[in-house]
Amino acid sequence: MFQLSLSSSWQKNALMSLLVVAPVTVACGSAKQVDEAGTGGKAATATGGQGVTSLGGSAGAGGTTASGSGGATSSGSGGAPAAGGSVAAGGTVNSAGGAFASGGKGGAASGGAGGAFGGAAGAGSQAGAHGLDHCVYGYDPEPSDATMKDGPAEFFPAGKSDPSIVDLTVQPEVLTWMRSHNWQAAHVEWHAIRTCNLPGGARGSMVNICQFTSMIPTDQNCQTTGDGYQFMLFHRHMLEALRQLWPKHSEQFTGFPKFPQSASDVPAQWRSAWKPFNATDLANAKIMDEIEKPDNLAMFPDEGALGFWLQCNMGTTIKGFSQKSSGLHGDLHAHWVRQGNTEHGVGNTQANIDNYMFWKLHGWMDTVWEKYRVAKGQKRTDAKYVADMQAQCHEMDIEADIAGRAAKPTTPTGPLPVESGFFHEKVRPIFESTANKCAGCHAETGPEALMSLGGHISSKDIVAGLVNKPAIGGGQYKRVDPGKPDQSWLYLKIVAMTNSCTPTSEGQCFTGPMPPSADGKTTVTAADAAIVRQWILDGAPGPQ
Ligand SMILES: [Cu+2]
Hints:
Number of strands: 3
Helix content: 40-55%
Number of helices: 22
Distance between the termini: 36 Å
Structural class: mainly alpha
Radius of gyration: 23 Å
Bound molecules: copper (II) ion
Largest sheet: 3 strands, antiparallel
């Protein structure tokens, strides 16, 4: 299924501009959290030790308890391992001793979660090959570093080889490692837990992650600059861990040196499908590529503001920062979607970290962030930064641990029913057209906004997921309100008429048009929009 393909000249360029970065990881936010750490910290110190010494031992059990019996127990689970931890800490003075101390710090930084979080962190910590806490000491290289291929690997769905749908993943050895360490699932839960306190509740969690109440960060998705900071830290943690595991192949985990401007800036497999970014994206990207210029630096009071501006849906506003977010992150994701080949797609929320372009785009944002930090005189050795990186690493370990017990998502392969009717014949093809590519992100597996618009799924199921279902990000609206296109979020999004959205206790308002378009204008043709409108006017009937 995987064939190596190495686009050597492009890749050498990327390699040459590889930013050399010291391995450290992540982040956690507010002053409030750090204060509470006093209590959490203690448990964390002890627990960190436990986790390191006996991987999945009693500390692991702490995590399990929490997941089995729900919210209330999660704080208990933090306390318990603490005791065991101190034993371990006392026992192994030399090699592990250092790890405990810093493990404790990591826990402390993430203290918002208190004992439970610290405890779980110890539990989930995956020791590197050398047996120390990788959150502190990093990972040793994988044996496959010696033999793995360079560059992206080509991926085709079973039985297909059409070059126009080739997708690019990181090398198979990396995919295997990430799967066995539950990284894909942990990434899902990391994002999901940051929506627990938002209208509509957790989005996309496969394990009801919000039951771990003590782990829920106060900084919720795109609500604060603290969240922007954590976003940058967490993705950097993953980038750095991968570079530690495969140091000879760090190119795979290093971003575009600059925002891609033309087909020659992307791997060969993507060149024929190259589409220019629109002027708004390019202007914003220029600010990022020249972030060290005083005017550009001055736009962002701190790195969290920068993270927010890069990460969040276009046009989002938050308190305490005057700039509306750029939506660059989402636009970059959408740009590399391979419709009809989404198993490892950059738009597949359950598997996007498999994708080679995921690391190119996140790596680019990471490079921008680093330039910002350097320009501001911030150092990799700053104590807060070090603690924040470790906290993100520990959080990911816990989430990997919890997620590892859940059923793994599988890509459906069975035959689809034969269907007909207006939706199936006229509407669905709009979602699946190569111009719109809706089904590249809203596919059958891991769909954005938990809404499928195509892929290996019946039209019956697509319609069932739309009609009278609340819109995620559409405030008071349903996805499709039969007979009422102007009250149907699906329609309002594709015609870019979303201003009437009002946030409710059930839904926020993500008002950017779909497909994503940084200039706020629709890219769906009037003829296509009219077909969708007609279907809704007719009562949004399912297929025959
Ligand atoms: Cu992510």
